[in-house]
UniProtKB/TrEMBL annotation:
This is DUF6630 domain-containing protein. It holds the Pfam family DUF6630. InterPro entries: DUF6630. Residues 34-185 form the DUF6630 domain.
Length: 189
């Protein structure tokens, strides 16, 4: 699979960041920024980032005759691979998706019950509390769980998010801001 563009080095994940590590280069294009985001949300898995980038480009090309929504396409291509997009009240899907994402690094989230698929537990569970629990446990292993929304899009009916290395938090926030995405740590609602 080819590197997304000839203009940037896939091994230099933050070549577009300014000298203080937080300034986004005004010349950085949307595709280059999206590539950086995919590298961040696929820690140590450039192949997965490349596959998702190709799928995103295809989705954008398919929607070229209508006005494409780059962030909606992103949400679709990363879902259950390096991100999640679940209904806010579907606690079962939230647990399942977070477990799937954590398993990429052989991690297991302790949901505080023997059977997190128990209907009584799921009915009583709150999505925000589940996100906070997962966030705190992933932090212990060097990762950060993030939730995100396109800037200005109040979507209280869904939880969308991804996981990065803990030390990539400032880089993620800078790239997300440049892409007009609001990000929050998973323990902040």
């Amino acid at each position: 699979m080819a590197v997304p563009d000839d203009d940037f080095d896939s091994d230099d994940n933050f070549a577009h960041l300014g000298t203080d590590g937080l300034e986004i280069d005004d010349e950085a294009g949307g595709e280059a920024l999206l590539w950086q985001l995919l590298l961040l949300i696929n820690p140590d898995d450039e192949e997965a980032a490349l596959q998702q980038f190709s799928a995103w480009r295809e989705a954008m090309a398919d929607a070229a005759e209508v006005e494409p929504d780059p962030l909606a396409a992103l949400a679709r291509v990363i879902d259950w691979k390096s991100g999640f997009d679940v209904g806010a009240h579907d606690t079962g899907a939230l647990i399942e998706s977070l477990d799937e994402l954590a398993s990429r690094w052989n991690l297991r989230i302790d949901w505080g019950v023997d059977d997190p698929t128990d209907p009584d537990f799921l009915a009583a569970a709150d999505g925000g509390s589940l996100l906070a629990r997962a966030h705190d446990q992933l932090r212990e292993h060097g990762y950060t769980l993030w939730t995100w929304n396109p800037r200005g899009a109040v979507r209280e009916d869904v939880f969308m998010g991804w996981i990065t290395w803990r030390h990539d938090g400032e880089g993620l926030q800078a790239v997300a801001q440049a892409l007009d995405i609001e990000v929050r740590p998973g323990n902040v609602h």
